[in-house]
């Protein structure tokens, strides 16, 4: 072999080694860069859970309310507390009209004192009549004794008996005339007392409940607008938010003619109405369906029925009927509610971890070897943050809806890539 051939072979071998080294380095870089990239992704574990499919809305509390207004100018007196329940025919409040009646009240006090004094004198007069009878009996006995002493000529005791006669005669005073005047005075005073009471009561207006219910001294000014008696008239076009005109009445407040003073709220049936911006969100609901709502940040959970649904231009008016928990809502008008359409149980995953690959919904997970794998899922339901996906069989396989094909899905405690759209299958994670 010539020197030129040997040089050419050495150059070829050197070239092959360089090419081999280049491919090895390229492979290592290819495998290493995705590893560094993928290790920055956040993950979470798939766990069992439950989720409610809800529609959020602002609800309007609709009630049957009887509003009572002042029939004159004056000062109000209340006989029930806010939120108390009162039966029909109960005295709820009264208004003392502003006409000055202080002189009448002062005269009434004076007459009551005089009547008490005369009653006391009358009692003493009756006691005096009893004493008069006893005096007459004693006087008769004393005269008989005096006659006996004189007949026996026992003159030493005669003077003593005479003194006793004079003493009893002094007590024998006729009080019948005085008692007659006292009775006349009492009659006149009682007559004047009745007149004064009538004059004072004529200066007061009393208010009684027409039917039983919850007493409220708070008004929002919307009792006539959002009334249970207007349910048939509510439409999407007319059901609008109206600003509150709140007024609170307290004992001894001054009121004028026509002012709100209190209301009685019928508490056996009440309603919540709301506008749903997207009617598709409640397309599964029909009139008569039983639904559940949560309110007050989930503290209250109440079951009711769909009373009315009206859909128009992609929106919907929904009116729900309730017959419990009214005590928690009697003094509210606008509340934030969640209408619970359905409940789901299964594997709970972050909603943003679900992505679409070739028209198939699924989630990327990191398997035990650290490689990113795509797992198809069947979504049962979701809210704004989470989704419930169907659990697979014992080997985590599910049957896809289209066709008879089975695929391995996400299993319990699989490590899920939260931002699924940012990874690809085959990437390596430490």
Automatic annotation (TrEMBL):
Residues 65-265 form the RND related barrel-sandwich hybrid domain. The keyword Iron does not apply. Keywords: Coiled coil. Residues 101-206 form a coiled coil. It comes from the Bacteria. The keyword DNA-binding does not apply. Pfam families: Beta-barrel_RND_rel, BSH_RND_rel, HH_RND_rel. Residues 270-342 form the RND related beta-barrel domain. Residues 102-203 form the RND related alpha-helical hairpin domain. This is Membrane fusion protein. The lineage of its organism: Bacteria, Bacillati, Bacillota, Tissierellia, Tissierellales.
């Amino acid at each position: 072999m010539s020197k030129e051939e040997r040089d050419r072979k050495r150059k070829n071998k050197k070239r092959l080694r360089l090419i081999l080294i280049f491919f090895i380095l390229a492979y290592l870089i290819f495998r290493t860069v995705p590893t560094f990239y993928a290790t920055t992704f956040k993950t979470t574990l798939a766990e069992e859970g439950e989720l409610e499919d809800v529609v959020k809305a602002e609800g309007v509390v609709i009630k049957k309310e009887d509003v009572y207004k002042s029939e004159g100018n004056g000062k109000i007196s209340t006989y029930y507390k806010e939120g108390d329940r009162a039966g029909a025919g109960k005295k709820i409040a009264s208004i003392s009209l502003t006409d000055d009646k202080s002189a009448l009240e002062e005269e009434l006090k004076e007459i009551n004192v005089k009547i008490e004094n005369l009653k006391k004198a009358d009692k003493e007069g009756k006691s005096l009549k009893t004493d008069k009878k006893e005096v007459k009996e004693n006087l008769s006995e004393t005269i008989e004794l005096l006659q006996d002493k004189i007949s026996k000529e026992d003159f030493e005791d005669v003077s003593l008996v005479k003194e006793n006669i004079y003493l009893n005669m002094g007590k024998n005073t006729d009080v019948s005339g005085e008692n007659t005047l006292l009775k006349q005075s009492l009659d006149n005073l009682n007559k004047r007392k009745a007149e004064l009471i009538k004059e004072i009561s004529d200066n007061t207006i009393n208010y009684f409940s027409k039917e039983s219910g919850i007493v409220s001294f708070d008004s929002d000014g919307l009792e006539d607008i959002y009334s249970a008696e207007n349910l048939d008239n509510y439409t999407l076009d007319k059901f609008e938010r109206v600003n509150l005109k709140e007024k609170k009445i307290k004992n001894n407040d001054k009121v004028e003619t026509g002012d709100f003073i209190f209301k009685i709220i019928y508490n056996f049936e009440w309603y919540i109405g709301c506008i749903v911006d997207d009617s598709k969100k409640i397309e599964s609901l029909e009139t008569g369906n039983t639904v559940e709502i949560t309110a007050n940040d989930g503290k209250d959970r109440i079951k009711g029925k769909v009373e009315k649904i009206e859909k128009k231009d992609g929106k919907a008016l929904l009116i729900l009927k309730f017959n419990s928990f009214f005590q928690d809502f009697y003094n509210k008008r606008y509340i934030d509610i969640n209408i619970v359409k359905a409940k789901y149980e299964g594997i709970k995953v972050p909603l943003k971890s679900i992505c679409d690959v070739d028209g198939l919904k699924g989630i990327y997970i990191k398997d035990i070897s650290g490689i990113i794998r795509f797992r198809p899922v069947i979504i049962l339901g979701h809210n704004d943050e989470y989704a419930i996906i169907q659990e697979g069989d014992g080997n985590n396989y599910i049957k896809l809806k289209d066709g008879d094909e089975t695929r391995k899905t996400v299993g319990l405690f699989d490590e899920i890539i939260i931002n699924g759209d940012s990874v690809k299958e085959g990437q390596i994670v430490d």
